[in-house]
Every structure is written in C-alpha cells, then in structure tokens.
C-alpha cells in the first residue's frame, strides 16, 4: 500500500507520475526549491471537495421509504443502511485517514475518489438489498477524503492564516452534511431514488477531475514509520495528549448538543403549537447553512487568538443561545430561528478552534490527531441522538433543551481544567499564563514547541520534515519566512 501511494519515492526530485503511469500536471509537481502557494482558490476547492464527498454519507437518509418500497422490505431493514455507512466511516477514520501521515496525499485522494465512483455506480444499479448494504458499508470506509483534506489544508496554509484555511474546509464539510439531505429529498420527491445516485456518480467524477487538476503533489511526512507504527501511535495519542483529550471531551458534548437539537427539531415543529409541514421543517436546514457560511470570517478572528479563548467565546455564546431556546423554543418560532442560525455559526467556530489547537501538537501527526477528534464527534452524535430523543419524548422540549445546557456546562468545566498556554504534557492548571494573542503565546511556548516527542521511531524527539521541503516558519515576532529544512 505504502509503495503504491508513493511513500518510498525520493523527495529531492520532482515526481512526474502518480501510480507510475498517471502524469502529474507540471504546476502541481512538488519542487523542493519552491513553496506551495495555498491561495483562496485552492482553499475553496478543498472546501467544495469536502462538501461533495461527505454528501455521499447522507444521501440515503431522506430516501429510506423509497428504498424500502423498491427492495420490498420493511423500514427496519433499510434503517440499517445509514448505520452501516456510518460504521464504515468510523472504520475508514481508523484505518485509512492515518495514511495521510505516511503517504503522498494526492495519490491517496485520487485512489479513494476512484473507488468511491465505482461503489456509487454499484449502488445506483443494484437490485439486491444485501449488495446495497455491503456497498454502503464500503462506501463509508473509503469516504474519508475530507478527513485527509482537513489536515492537508493545515499543512499547506501559512501559520498566520491556518485557522481561516481550516474554517473554509470545515465549512464545506458541515455544508455537505446539511445539503445532501435537502438535495436527495427534493430529487427523491419528484423521481426515483436511483436518480440521486446517478447524480452522485457525476458529482464524484467532477471531484476526481478537480483532484487531478487542483490538488498539489506533496511529500510523505513520516517515511521512516510503517503503517502499523502509525496505528499504534494513533492509540497512543488518544490517551497521552492532554490537549487532544480535552478537545475530544469538549467535542463529544458539543456534538451531542448539536445532534440533540437537529434530531428533536422535527418533533418540536411538527407538533403544537407550530404543526409545520415536513417541507417547512426542512427549510430550517437552510437557516443552519447560513450559520455555516460565517465560518471563514470567524476563522480570521481565531487566527489572532490562542485557540483556547476562541473555544471559550464560542461555548459561552452557545450556552446563551441555548438558554434562549430553553426559555422560548416551544413558544416563539423567532427563538427557534435565532438558535438554529447561532448553533451552526458558533458550533463551527468551536470546531475550528479545537482543530487549530490539536494541529499545533505535532505537524507530522495531523492526520492521526484529526482522526481522534473526528471519532469523538461520532460518539457525541450517537449520544445526542439517542439520549436527546428519549428525553424529548418522555419529558418534552424544554427538558431536552435543558439537557443541552448541562452539556455546555460540562464543556466549560473541561475547558477551565487546563489553561490556554499550558505545556504539551501538562494535564491541569494554568502554566504559561493567560496570554490571549497567539503571537505572545508563541514566544512563551518556544522552548517546548521544538521538542515535540516523535511517534514510535528512534532518534530525535521530533520527526524531521522531508529533506529540502520548504515550510513556513513563524518567528518570535509573529512574522513568517520561508526556510528550507
């Protein structure tokens, strides 16, 4: 696998072919003498790619009734489709996304996009439910391209714009989750569910074309590590990195709040006093999309702050908004609309700040760190969906909303246990002070920032970057300069 994806190629020469036969466009070939320019066009392309790829995981959800009729089975049997897709996605996060730390990511993304097209074709033409279930699971496994693009964007972006770059990609990811349900529901309402998957095939072909012409070739980062070393270090990071554990615990509770609202929103608006139709309830997703579009602007602000403070501000705003929902969500539709917009806007800001924080732990391990954070998101989604629905049904909308307020309180407790400028292996306290601006914090952490322990390989405490690879180095004054390592 590693040799196929280019982990063993010499990094001091331009690689002209992917997989040994596919020509790399000249302008996208890695040149050790030049720094890759990660501009607005490439950043938006990464975000759009995430939107179109992650949508594959959610097309099926509005189509379950049609699928049950087409395959002549019960609702309970087709209900396994989204479960298997999400299970496959978790497997892909654990087994495939960490490859981004040891192989050339352009080749990995090309391979995953090609397999996705083949699997989507199979889904669109099969007439057997068991085949559809198997293909759905496999689609989830290989549909982890967004979780490779996200740390890739963090690697390519200059340090002073990293949060803004990550926020654009993260916005694309969240947009795809909401947009897929709307598009599939509209198409499925007027025609067959197969048309949705025919469309998905065309969309994935478009993605593959974009990957070929836009994604730059980039050297593998940890060429001295094996695949099993990467998996072992993934488990190690999950239990030994205080900042990652803190971010994951916050992410679990935050995603539980998000899932709790969106899952129970149908019950809230479908019953008294609103009694809205399914169409009107679905339009609330558009309000959420408007909130997501604030992400890139918020990312620019986060670039100027220590991520801890951005997380604090976002969490406090979410708590205030949740209190409005708790007080008036079942009385005034204005409260629901305000909360719907604010939830997605500040949840996006919180996610970007958490991602920025964990990406600072280790440049060489960003794919693995992102995999752990994303797995915590899935845990929160399951928790919010199951617990939130049960509380809503048994005790009503106000109790479900109050549950989310308690989860936001939990997030603040976890955040305050560990201050903004603590050293890498400090579990509790406020070591390093309370500096707010990122540049000031960077000066204080400079001694420890260059002594990042490596993964599982011998040698220096920090894994070296590929030879002759130009990277962006941040000086103590906050300026950036291009250096050759």
Automatic annotation (TrEMBL):
Indicate what this protein is called per its UniProt record: MFS general substrate transporter
Organism, per UniProt?
Leucogyrophana mollusca
The record lists the lineage as:
Eukaryota, Fungi, Dikarya, Basidiomycota, Agaricomycotina
